[in-house]
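Students often ask why we bother predicting the structure of a whole assembly rather than each chain alone. The short answer is interfaces. A chain on its own may look different once its partners are present, and contacts between molecules only exist in the joint model. In this exercise we take three input lines together and write out one structure for the complete complex. Read the inputs first and try to guess which parts will touch.
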Amino acid sequence: MSAVPISYYLVLSAILFGLGVIAFVFKHNIITIYMAIELMLNAVNLAFVAFARAHKQLDGLVFVFFVIVVAAAESAVGLAIILTIAQNRQSLNVERVNQLKF
Amino acid sequence: MSLPFILFFVFAIVAVVGAILLIVAREPIHSALSLIMVMVALAALYLLLGAEFIAAVQIIVYAGAIMVLFVFVIMLLNAGVEERTNWSKIAKYAGLPLGIFLLFELAHWLARSAIGARIANGSEGTNGAVSTRALSEMLFQKYLFPFEATSILILIAILGALVLAKRDE
Amino acid sequence: MLLLNYLWIILALPLAGAAINGLFGKNWPKRAVNSVAIGSVSLTLVAVAELVREFSQLAPAQIPWMRNYFPWITAGPFHVDFALQVDQLTVVMLLTVSFVGLLIHIYSTGYMEHEGGYYRFFSYLNLFMFFMLTLVLAANIVVMFVGWEGVGLCSYLLIGFWFLKKSAADAGKKAFIVTRMGDFGFTVGILLLFWTFRSVDFATIFSKVAENPTDIGVLTSICLLLFAGAIGKSAQLPLYVWLPDAMEGPTPVSALIHAATMVTAGVYMVARMNPLFSRAPIAMLAVAIVGTITAFYAATIGLVQTDIKKVLAYSTVSQLGYMFLGCGVGAYAAGIFHLMTHAFFKGLLFLAAGSVIHAMGGEQDMCQMGGLRKKIPVTYWTMFIATLAIAGFPPFAGFFSKDEILYSAYGGPFANKALYALGLAAAMLTSFYMFRLVFLTFFGSPRYDEHKVHVHESPKNMLVPLVILAILSTIGGWFAAPKFWGGQDYFHNFIGPVFAQADKLAPAAETTEEAAHVLEMQLSGVAVLVALIGFFVAWWFYIRKPKAPEDLAKSLRGPYTLLLNKYYADEIYLTLIVRPLLWLSTNVLWHVVDEGMIDGTVNGAAHVAREAGGELRKLQSGNARSYASWVVIGAVGVTVLLLGVWMRMAP
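Now the answer. The structure tokens for the assembled complex follow.
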């Protein structure tokens, strides 16, 4: 069977990454922004897997594994931070978290 | 139009739609659900690429644990429609347009990359599926140290989350 | 031990005196200060005498005798050593300066006895001696300039000695600034001199100018520039205005600095540079013209002044004009001789005037004097002798020197009949106003209140120098008396070698020696006649008919006021030069350049930095979306760069 060229996956990865960036810049809710970060990570994972497939090596997959693990740890801590911020400020608007300025 | 192509496009469209919904959604819970949609589509794409273990890990850990965590937090905080403040001028005038530009730029170049022309399922090599055994062998031999390090990382994350979430008594 | 090898001792002695008095003399009794000051100058005189003795034993080939003490400035080709030289001209100047200086130091112990700042006065006076001797002993023009500036400094310090008096402080500043204007020309002249001859040493320059023909335009420029400095320092037109104001200083200062020594520095310089001047006839003519016009001009002002010191001040300006006239017509020896005799009789005149002022308890206005003849006889007689000398009566000193200058102006190698006529007229005026001074001060009935002012003769330490100078004013002329008068012509023979180049270049005399002698006799007769006319007119106006001056002044009101106000020279300078300069300094240099540009640049830079910082810190908004946007912008930039450039570059 004829297969899908790797470049398709890479383009999809790029599109998802770009959408993640747009979401990060565009949205106001802290949690949504965090989800955009996860989206970007996923896009990168896709690129890794595609390349692993292209080079016929397994290192890419191992790296994806680690990315997922780290994303898990990071989301645990990050969400805890978000919880704390939300309790302190009674708002989930990221623009209200602006004390560290000039 | 062979099956892999159709499958690819279907899941690709699902992923992209999910991402767009994530941007467009007004309530955070909708964004979370869209993200889950994206992840599931990606898991299917991993399967297409022959990374079964990774697809499974994606569903179990990412969509199953992390996103559940997200949903829990949204529920805890009772996050609703967010207020629209537009204080950052840079984001409005430069960030957004350039973000779009970045998207197209990357897509454009990655489409042209030399490696991309290679067929996913090449004539050489195996059928394409990667055995979990081979993956685990690599994981526990070549990448043992990072493996152990990430387990410590998880431990630290747990401790951090504990400390942060604790109320001052 | 040959003093010739230790020339620096002559300089070190007065310098040491100045230092000791200046640093330690404040709380010493007057006797101690006197000992140090007069001791140092006496020792200097002794050293000079010894130097002269050794000098007389030198062979002609060893003259000028030079001693190089240490290299002072070495900047590429510009090399200046601290070098001293002795030749006949130096000897004449050394003797004049140190002897008259000593007499005035002794006089000052009496005159300044009741003044405050006693130690300071003598410290400055010794310092002045040091600088004047440096000027005279210098072997190159830069060391001479050191002395030149140094005497200017001491002049400023001493004119403004009573610095709490505004007019004195202003006079000191005026002297310094006006001479500075001339010194600017002098400095440019030094630069041009170095540029032309690649050296500043006199010996080197004079030998070079003798061997290689130098462009006459350059030589004329050098001479004119150097002469500009002399115009300032020796108070000629147009930079003479400081000298009358300098009378604010104590009278011994006026005697020493502004009569006998400092103001003669310009004449000395011109005489020293005679090889250059004699090759630039235009410069010589300029010197002669300036000198003669100044002589006449200052004499006219002196006719109507009432302050005794001001009359003498204008008289000094006038006599300096004579010296320059002498140098300008090639009679350098005559000019220097007049310098020497002028030091005697003008110094005497000033010291005697100081004695009169001291006797009158501080009064300087001649209209408040009168009939002092019997009360202060020694002062009277010495002053009378000095007046005879300055008017040019034989056998007193002034006769020979002035006569020789006028003869050279009439029939010498560079003669100019017009200058002679003016000089003769000035001589008549000189005789008139000097006798006017004597008659107003010492004759007639007292115009002051005899109960209020107790006229008393001055103490011995003031009178003795007067007498000594009077003796010199009487017999001093015989040094240079030409043979046909019965003299030895000693001075000319002695100082002749210094002016050898000038004499060689002068056009040969057209007349025979016999005819020259006859001419000189005739001119001397004319000069004496003119002096007698001055004497008679003064006698008529001030003794015979004391009312006559007033009537004349009333009828010639216009000219009289003009002369009384010294041709409004100070006022003209104030309007034309001082005010515009002050306006320029305040409005342009201060406001525009200093405040606007320099402060503006510095403050502006700080302002820009602060504004920039103020704008940049707004970047730190605390807004995460902004930060994310910046990251995106950076990412786009890097991506474009990498993918766009790198991709194209990779084959």
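Check your guess against this: Chain B is about 75% helix and 0% strand.
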